[in-house]
């Protein structure tokens, strides 16, 4: 697969709730945390994405009211289900009560009860638009990849016409995906897609993603900008230099590098404002130098342990 066929999509992690771990999130929101203001902002970013040709939108039950905001936008704009791809996730519950400084923002729960409850909540909001339902941050430690009751339920959903995927998180993304690829339910592979973190700082999952692609899974990349650590003044000097040569922002350059990988199908933008979205979209303007930039920027890669340790220290703002 070439970069030309890689889709740019919009993830709603930073749009559906007042607090998130993207660097500069508070400044982007400008202190406007009221739910109505957040919904209006979400719609503005969704409008910008739609006008830019983006047709894939990714949410989750734990993204505050992201599914609700997305659903209201789809209805208001009268977009037909066949004209858009909507993916969402289950496995975390949002518990911050709309507070930025909450002691806990989400609770992980990969139980059968959580799946049964949350899939109905997602269907109730997104209805016929829901195109892919993913396990949110499947890890070896959570036990979900060995929970036959949960896997059987996911197989039922798959057989009922809802494609099933998984997203990954943490320093053991690679091992978790390798384990997931061995899973079959009803004599058939369970997963249709995998969503993982891959960027200039964190590349450890790449071998497993290559194997997933070989097996026919759709490969989706999240956190391509490392939660803002590859944007603007936060970006390493080497990335700033490459972006200057390409005459785009560091965000567009970092996204273009991901889009240049032949095994990537979908790359998520985490834009919080229409201006950020338009800056991200400029990744499409970067020519084949994006692929070459991977080699020139190879020294930026960190160990998985270091990357995820640093990510865990990012504040919710």
From TrEMBL:
Q: Where is the NADP-dependent oxidoreductase domain?
A: 29-286
State the Pfam families in the record: Aldo_ket_red
* SUPFAM superfamilies given in the database record: NAD(P)-linked oxidoreductase
Q: Which InterPro entries match?
A: AKR2_Oxidoreductase (IPR053135), NAD(P)_OxRdtase_dom_sf (IPR036812), NADP_OxRdtase_dom (IPR023210)
Q: What is this protein called?
A: L-fuco-beta-pyranose dehydrogenase
Q: Which organism is it from?
A: Labilithrix luteola
Taxonomic path? Bacteria, Pseudomonadati, Myxococcota, Polyangia, Polyangiales
